């Protein structure tokens, strides 16, 4: 490995970065939501009744509904982003075809505004335009890579699969573990899984892991505690 490559190890210079981060982001968020939402449902139902049929029904409903909802939400959100990026790319391509000299001057002005001399900025703009005019303008003006537009289908599938994988964990835990330890074990399993997703999310974003993990674990604990308390109150009151 060259010295320059070693200096930039771990920095996001690889092509297709937006696509990979999109997949990872959707996957981690999907898993986290699957763990928390389904765990909250099954723990809440378990607080009201110990019947496996009721817990299983509620858990499966939450799993299927949540996975579809997550996939749809990701698809709509990323589709909007993708459509905007494609529209900007088409606009820039049209402007380059209709007024190349004005676009060249605009590109040179961008580099001059970043600190280059007028002559150097013009030379840089000219060379980049000769190499790939569209890529040069998309990068300088819009920070877009035409070959790296995010895919809504990838995000939707990753989110749905991750949600399902995360949701299965609390569902299995609360159904397999016998009374009276099932709720406690489910709490422990869920919080451990949330710690893993929090650390993974921090690793992807390059942020401090402890803080990110603590936020996710505390939030999950609050959600589980609240739903279990509500379920227990309803069960004690004879509502269910």
Task: Characterise this structure.
With about 240 residues, this protein is mainly alpha-helical. The chain contains 8 helices and no strands. The longest helix has about 45 residues, at about 50-100. About 30% of the residues are buried.
Strands, helices and their partners?
Layout: H1 3-7, H2 17-48, H3 52-98, H4 100-113, H5 118-142, H6 152-176, H7 182-205, H8 209-236
Helix pairs in contact: 2-3, 2-6, 2-7, 2-8, 3-4, 3-5, 3-6, 4-5, 6-7, 7-8
Whole-number tally of structural domains:
1
Report, as a whole number of angstroms, the end-to-end distance: 65 Å
What's the story with the biggest beta sheet?
A: none
Summing up helix and strand content along with how strands pair, one would put the structural category as: mainly alpha
What's the alpha carbon Rg, rounded to whole Å?
A: 25 Å
How many helical stretches?
Answer: 8
Shape: elongated
Please count the beta strands (DSSP E, at least 2 residues each): 0
Order of helices and strands: HHHHHHHH
Percent helix range: over 70%
* Unreliable stretches covering 5 or more consecutive residues: 1-16
Strand content: under 5%
Mean pLDDT: 83
Explain briefly what this protein structure is.
The chain is mainly α and 240 residues long. It has helices at residues 3-7, 17-48, 52-98, 100-113, 118-142, 152-176, 182-205, 209-236.
